[in-house]
UniProtKB/TrEMBL annotation:
Protein name: Ribosomal RNA-processing protein 43
Protein species of origin: Zancudomyces culisetae (Gut fungus)
Every Exoribonuclease phosphorolytic domain range: 37-193, 243-304
Keyword rRNA processing applies: yes
Alphabetically ordered keywords of this record: Cytoplasm, Exosome, Nucleus, RNA-binding, rRNA processing
Family per similarity comment: Belongs to the RNase PH family.
Main location: cytoplasm
Subcellular location: Cytoplasm; Nucleus, Nucleolus
GO cellular component: cytoplasmic exosome (RNase complex); nuclear exosome (RNase complex); nucleolus
Amino acid sequence: MAISEFEAQVFQKVHPKEYQQRFLAQAIRTDGRAFDQFRNTKITKGGIETAHGSSTVRIGRTTVVCGIKGEVCEPRLISAAYPQAGSRGFIVPSVKLTSISSSKFLQGGATNQISQVLSEQVYRLLFTSDSNSKHAQNDNLEDFSTLLDQLCIAKDKAVWVLYADLVCINYDGNILDAVLLALINALKDVKLPVATFDEELGVVFCGNDGAGASASASASVGDSNDGQKVSLQLKSNLYPTSFCVFSSGENKCLLVDPTELEEDSCDGSISLVLDDSGAIVNIWKLGDGVGTDELELCYERALQRKKELASML
């Protein structure tokens, strides 16, 4: 006996995990995709005229917009926490989950925590700890070390700080992949005014749309260089691929590019980030673990996803 659409919706709300399991038992997902099938992905560069760089990423219905704004800062203001501050600039990612993107993200503590966790994940991808500082640069990500070197205007005098606001305007799962892709693509779109530091005046001169003045008058910003712009040079892209894990006894089912419904009822998740060479840059795992065989399968599918994303970035 066939059930009505209303009855199916009620069953989904009351027993979300069993609802998923019944589909998975038939080797299909609730949205009709195969286990290894990604949703339509669209990556757009630019679009925000007031930002120094911007990007929009759509994965299915999940949509994230990234806007990057650069400001000039004196390294000494933050050198206590960052030993290499004198010769490198900074990237400050901030993920924002708006109530307009999903009713689950109403203003409050839980939403703020999720945003902070995502911001921290993005930050840890770019930076990792070593023996000197918990904020030191990850040697495995040489490209980002080089990128931060490009943000130095004058050693120990002035550097660029890039504030990356990553705003989710529509949420349907797999937010981490969308956030990382939006950030990388926006960084490739960044065009900063050519900036020079005048030793005698203690002033940074840049284009007419240059960054705001530093907190100290000794590193204020002037207008010069006729509006010239310089782009950042990224030697490698980053390619994220996320999975959710459904466990049934000893059997585990891996679903790529999970939707919100799948994430809410899964037993665990895993995300892999690859570079241009196909090497694993980072792995995040939550909930039920996966064995060696499952991890190898994740890597194979991440390589396939990398090839697909490489044609878009």
